[in-house]
Each structure stands twice: as C-alpha cells, then as structure tokens.
Amino acid sequence: MAYPLSDAALQWQRTARAFADEVLMPHEETAEFNDGELPAAVYVHHKQTAMELGFPLMDAPLSYGGLALPMLTQVVVWEQLGRVTNALSWCMSEVHAWMFEACNADQIERYILPMMQGQRRECYAITEAEAGSDNTAIASVARRVGDDYLISGEKWFVTSANKADFLFFQAVVDEGGGDGASGQHALFFMDKDSAGIEMLDNPLFGHTYSSHHPTYAFRDVRVAAANRIGAPGAGMDFTRSWFRRERLMIAARCCGAAGRLIDLASAFAQSRVVSGHPISQYQLIQAMLADSITELWAARLMTYEAAAMQDRGEDLALIHTHCSMAKLYASEMANRVADRVVQIFGGRGYMRSNPAQRFFRELRVDRIWEGTSEIQRLIIARSLLKRGVVGMIGL
Length: 395
Ligand SMILES: Cc1cc2nc3c(=O)[nH]c(=O)nc-3n(C[C@H](O)[C@H](O)[C@H](O)COP(=O)(O)OP(=O)(O)OC[C@H]3O[C@@H](n4cnc5c(N)ncnc54)[C@H](O)[C@@H]3O)c2cc1C
Known about the structure:
This protein is an alpha+beta fold. The protein folds into three domains: about 5-115, Acyl-CoA dehydrogenase/oxidase, N-terminal domain (Butyryl-Coa Dehydrogenase, subunit A, domain 1, Orthogonal Bundle), CATH 1.10.540.10; about 120-230, Butyryl-CoA Dehydrogenase, subunit A, domain 2 (Beta Barrel), CATH 2.40.110.10; about 240-395, Butyryl-CoA Dehydrogenase, subunit A, domain 3 (Up-down Bundle). It has helices spanning about 5-25, 30, 40-55, 70-80, 95-100, 105-115, 240-270, 285-310, 315-345, 355-360, 375-395, and strands at about 120-125, 140-145, 150-155, 165-175, 185-190, 195-200, 215-225, 230, 275, 275-280. The strands form two sheets. Strands 1, 2, 3, 4, 5, 6, 7 and 8 form an eight-stranded mixed beta sheet that branches. Helix 1 packs antiparallel against helix 3 (about 40-55).
C-alpha cells in the first residue's frame, strides 16, 4: 500500500475506478474518431451516472447539499478519472468550495446551485491575446453604467464555451469615479446569450475533445452589477484557492493517466515477441518501465501529501507552493511516461486507437494551463528563497 487511505476514501476510489473503466473508457475510440463527440444518449448517461455517484458535489459545502469530502478523497477520485482519455470525465460541472466563499446568496442561487444540479454549465474567460501567464496584463474592461457594467475585450482559449451557458469573466473595473475602486480586477458572471458576444475563432488543438477552446470578442456586453463576484474593493483573493485546487487535481489526473499507461505498457511488453523474446526481457525496455513507475510513485506521494496538508489545515501559503510542486512534477512526469510508453509500443504507439497515443497528445497541455511549468517554478523558487529548505519540507 503506497499511502494510507481511509475506508471511505478507498470506497470512493473503487466507485471512481468502476465509473472510469466501465462507463467512460468503452467510448474513448468513438470520441477520438468523431471529433471528440459521443452520441447524445451516451453523453446523457455519463452525466447522469456522474451526478448519481455524487462527483459534482465532492467539494461543495454540506450546508448547500454538498459532500465536503476531504481533499485527499477528491484527489483519489480525480486520479481515477484521469485514467480516461478524450476528456470524457468532463461530462459534469463540478462546483468548488471557493465559489461558495466568493459568491453571495443570490449568485449561488442563480449560478452555482444550478451548476451543481447539472442544469447550467460554466466556462472561464480569463486569458487574452496579451495576457496569459501574466494576468495582470488583462485589458478587458468593465465600465460601470448605472446598475450595470458594460464589458469589452477579447478572450482566448475559453474551454467548453461551446457547451457553457455562462462565463466567469475577468476584467479590469472602471467605476467612473475617483474612489480608488477603478483599476482593480474583478470576476463577473456573464450569460453567454448576452448581446455583444462574437466568436472570432475556434482553433483545432492537439487533443480530440468535444469541449472546444474558442476565441471571443466582447463589445459592450451589459452585465448587471449584481453579477460582480465580490464587493468593489474586495479583490480576488479567492483565485488562490481556485488555483490550489485546479493544480492539485491536474496532478491527480496526471498520476491516473501515468498509472494506466504503465499498466498498458507492461502488459504489451510481456506479450510482444521480438527476435524470439518478449520485449519485457530486454533491459532497455525494463529501464523505461522502472523509471516510469518510480517517477509515478514520487508524483503520487507528492500529490497525496499536498492534499493531506489541506485536510490537516496547514499554512495556506505553504500548501499553495506544494500544489505547484505537485502540478509541476506530476505533469512533467506524465509527459515523460507517455513518451516512453509510445516508444515501448513501437509503431502501434503512434496509432490513434492506442490510448498511449491519445495521452501523448492530451497530457501536453497539463504543462501549460493553470500556470505553465515555468510559472510553477517561479512560485516554488520564490517560496524556497523565502522559507529555506526547512521551511519548505522540514529537512
Ligand atoms: C487547451 C487550452 C485550454 C485553455 N483553457 C483556458 C480557459 O478555459 N480559460 C482561460 O482563461 N485560459 C485557458 N487557457 C490558457 C492558458 O491558461 C494559457 O495558455 C497559459 O496560462 C499560458 O499563457 P500563454 O499561452 O499566453 O503563454 P505566455 O504567457 O505567452 O507564455 C509563453 C511562454 O513564456 C513562458 N513565460 C511566461 N512568463 C515567464 C516568466 N516570467 N519567466 C519564464 N518564462 C515565462 C511561459 O511559460 C511559456 O513557455 C487554455 C490554454 C490551452 C492551450
């Protein structure tokens, strides 16, 4: 046993594994060879099953009907869901604890609870042409006009916008007065059917997902002031909890993907005979398998420990750095593993029907989104220079 898990966490692990293996995985190739799409009835079945199993409620507070599961249990679940290609696990909208902290009662009622109940779907419009890693460079403006804001700008890579009916939209606020509230960044709920939204481009990406990542222009889109998340002047501190969670869950999914890849490669290596021997007997192949499982173990321990730190209520700034370390290491580990596993499969590893080939393409973006590897390194280095090794890892 690699890490001590509670009986409840092990039960969630079994449930998530069965959902991944029995419900989602059989449809991966259909999605791969159909631009990521599944027949509508299959998609509905996936979504309903995910809802019934409670996955969208894992991080929601008990007071709103959520499950408020320990972070380690949530990691265990996302690790299993990460074993599936083609983003088939994105069949549900998961609500997160930070949303209940950042939003007021009315916003929770109109946006967050319907997400939790599978009735509304969200997307995140943060990145711009000139503002990716450095989101202080965001140029979209929300200009206050009476009880509304008029929002203008351009957003790139708006994941799942083709399925969403509202956006979390980040803009710089212009309150029109000299009270100091202007120039701050704020997040808004923006309904996708608002006038003034135009899709400029819908690029193709390395993976084959039914969720697209289009580019949009926003021209004087009218959004009620009541849709602003947080009071004027309150800032956007909640984005730190958001990043912690997203980075941790990326790490979890990367561990799951690497686990499946290593299983597939081990089985193939034992059955594939070349020059009279299974290739698993060749030490160059063994080295690739050994390095892969060793690195996966390290990444998994880091990811589990970063989650357990949150469950133990440790210092948030330190947890933030540990989530960055988990994301950095696990995403780079999973990319190395995918590369080796394609190699072990030889020509068969280059076929899109092989999960190794799909993961090889899909895992690449985990080194880019929610903060690139370089940005994670900057966060980690800053923390190290401030705390020292003892402060970082107690050594
Ligand atoms: C498939 C996909 C889906 C996405 N989904 C969303 C979404 O739903 N919503 C959303 O808002 N965004 C989304 N993004 C955007 C994503 O978060 C950004 O691509 C990412 O933050 C990097 O920004 P950038 O692409 O502008 O790269 P840049 O910021 O231009 O960086 C280019 C290169 O420079 C490096 N770099 C930048 N700053 C430094 C520095 N200080 N030191 C050293 N190196 C540096 C980067 O690491 C990178 O290698 C998505 C992106 C992709 C590819």
